[in-house]
Fold this protein.
Amino acid sequence: MTSTHKDALFVLVKSLSKSEKRQFKLYVGRLGVNTDAKFLALFNLMDKLKGYDEEVILESGIVKKSQLSNLKAHLYKQILISLRLNPVNQNIRVQIREQLDFATILYQKGLYKQSLKILDKVKYLAIENEEKNIAYEIVELEKIIETQYITRSIPDRASELTSQSERLSEQNAITSKLSNLSLQLYSMMLKMGYVRNDEDFRKVTDYFDSHLPDIPMKLMGFREKLWLYKAHLWYSFLTQDFLSSYKYSSKWVDLFNEQPDMILLNPVFYLKGNNYLLESLFYVKYASQFRATLDRLETVVSGKDFPRNDNLASLAFLYVNTNKLNLHFLEGTFEKGLYLVKIVEFGINKHRDRLDEHHIMIFYYKIACLYFGVGDHKMCIQYLKKIIQNKNLKMREDLMCFARVLSLVAHFEAGMDYHLEVQLKSTYKFLLKMNELHGVQREMITFLRKIGSIYPNELKAAFQELYERLKAFEDHPYEKRAFLYLDILSWLESHLQSRPVAEIIREKAQAIRR
């Protein structure tokens, strides 16, 4: 049996909404000859299957094994054509591409003037909507038609097209450089997380400085500015300069607020920009602005004018609920946040085909921290196991490392210390393998390793000593990242003051509320 996730056609069929399935059947039935078509029968069978099973398909008698591959490819193509015709998918980008196709057909029929008329109109529509790659294609086709020497265009037409081509080519080159830089920085973030030492910092900074093009802002449009802010944002995140990440994520979101039409054309970038703004506000502990930004995002996403499709629904679920969890961490209201666990679990199952493993693991870590905050350490351990047992070590190494450290603390708190020594050795080896054994982690492991030999009356003094050692790392440029994953200092304060950790965090949040 082939895995559901590996069979592209089955995943596509299962991704269709009821209205999209109904439209597909109407599209197929537009000609009576198609009503008994094999590809429609295959579609109906796949729609009923819970999992992709090639044996069931062959036993149905719809198709022979030797023909199955071709029939699946044909069905896949027909579904895509049907989706393209769906009014829901008829955004400006698709409309521009459609007009370009029409102009190409007219050109091939030798109707040059009609083709040029369409191209001239759609070109300015493309430029107006920041679709400069398509605009460049349009200009190049215009140049080809003009070289036929039969349109008798105005004398300065050549100069006009040449100027437009050069300008669009330059802007597309700028965008390409900035998008390449942004992508590489994002890749670094996923691979290693934040910079861990001076060597990492120099490596990231040298790469950023050497690949950031020096371009005057006056030459940049919406698209170029967007990629510029994205590149700066990822550099700020990597180097843990969260005030800078707040600055550039704000600029990102402001681009859309200043040009609301771009939200409809680029809803994914709008969602991502707001998510990074919320993440930055979380790190700088700006609670009031965080709540206001989250409320505004929910309002826009739920509005009748915001685009609707499965991908946007998955992203909205991811970003809204991740930041709802963060809000409870920010304010120390862990108990109130427990209702989100069922919502997140349901959402993960519903959107699993569109959520990458990294974001699912982030959800599990945040849920684990939620349970840790309310003192339910066994549930905390259960969710951490989902991360620790994940064999994809290339995914956010720092997340996996801190999951293991939090697991040690949770085992200690739960009184499950009978396997603590084995876990300590395992975690120690893992951190060394990942090159992640830094000051905070080293102090934590040292403390937990000797905890068994400390008498009860000496425990408070041991917690105090660990607290003072870790406090020195709170503002360290590289070590401070440990406190972004786990508020170890508040945990220690809760032991020293014999109070719940949630109460400690809540008091800190109120003290810095702004």
Q: What stands out?
A: Residues 171 and 220 are 8 Å apart (CA to CA).
